[in-house]
Design goal:
With about 280 residues, this protein is an alpha/beta fold. The chain has helices at about 1-10, 40-50, 60-65, 100-105, 125-145, 160, 170-180, 200-205, 220-235, 245, 250-265, 270, and strands spanning about 15-20, 55, 75-80, 80, 95, 110-120, 150-155, 185-190, 210-215, 240. The strands form two sheets. It has an eight-stranded parallel barrel with strand order 1-2-3-6-7-8-9-10, surrounded by eight helices.
Length: about 280
């Protein structure tokens, strides 16, 4: 039954997915709200651009699912909240999943659930919580036919860059992605490698599990489009971008440009012309 929901996520022609992440408010960081203070407008703009999916929380999913019609993007439901994204890691750290996550996903007509798998230097207890969360979600998601997207995130040392910066070390990414597969992920949402040309190694270790690539921190249009072209060429099954879309001056334009790369294989330079003002 999971294939029925996965069919709503992946484009029938390209076989790829573009998921716009608008779940940042879950994590209680002031900088994460830029561009989504008015969540209803942010969701409406994303829907207008027509990505394959939009990632939201239980408290905000209604802004997508209340839109009439059958052609809106699929819902990817964020199932866990953490307190480890700030410039300082608190004394008590957590990554907690919502109760009855699969049932809540079914009630909200989600096509997929998303859950974190953190690897944070010096904070092994949060990694343990993540593993336990996935182990709890996996058998229930299997029972109800709900796909499970696991998000392996290897952090840079907090003292170096704070809590939400991509660590593009390919060895760390590869091993954490493999752990996500071993835990039963149906989809992987992983960091980009520092060298996009190495991303085939991540794809290989994931085997037949599709890998969607995170956008990470806000970068220029030229950089995000070029990176997207490179990782798609390496075999990625799509992208999950948040701040590079929702904090963009023209979210609709950048989404359409990224969609053209993901689904039509156009070049980054050609896609840049689609961004507009």
């Amino acid at each position: 039954m999971k294939s029925y929901r996965l069919n709503r996520l992946f484009n029938s022609v390209s076989g790829r997915c573009f998921d716009v992440a608008i779940d940042h408010g879950f994590f209680n960081q002031p900088g994460f709200l830029t561009g989504i203070e008015d969540i209803r407008t942010a969701v409406a703009k994303a829907v207008e651009a027509g990505p394959d999916a939009i990632q939201l929380t239980v408290g905000q999913a209604r802004h997508l699912q209340s839109i009439p019609g059958k052609h809106k993007p699929a819902l990817v439901l964020r199932t866990d909240a953490a307190n480890i994204y700030g410039s300082e890691i608190p004394e008590v750290r957590f990554n907690s999943i919502i109760d009855d996550a699969v049932v809540q996903g079914l009630r909200l007509d989600a096509a997929c659930l998303c859950v974190n798998l953190f690897m944070i230097p010096g904070v092994p207890e949060v990694h343990r919580q993540c593993v336990e969360n996935i182990m709890k979600l996996k058998p229930v998601s299997d029972h109800y036919g709900m796909p499970l997207m696991v998000e392996p995130l290897s952090f840079q040392p907090n003292s170096k860059s704070g809590g939400y910066m991509v660590d593009g070390n390919e060895e760390r990414i590869i091993h954490l992605v493999r752990q996500a597969v071993e835990l039963g992920a149906d989809i992987i949402k992983a960091d980009p490698t520092d060298d996009p040309a190495a991303y085939h190694r991540v794809i290989r270790v994931a085997g037949d599990i599709p890998v969607l690539v995170r956008g990470g921190g806000k970068v220029s249009d030229e950089e995000i489009l070029a990176r997207t072209e490179a990782i798609i060429a390496q075999g990625a099954a799509g992208i999950v971008y948040g701040r590079n879309v929702i904090q963009h001056p023209n979210p609709v334009g950048i989404t359409r440009a990224l969609m053209a790369i993901v689904h039509q294989n156009i070049s980054a330079s050609e896609a840049l012309k689609l961004v507009g003002g």
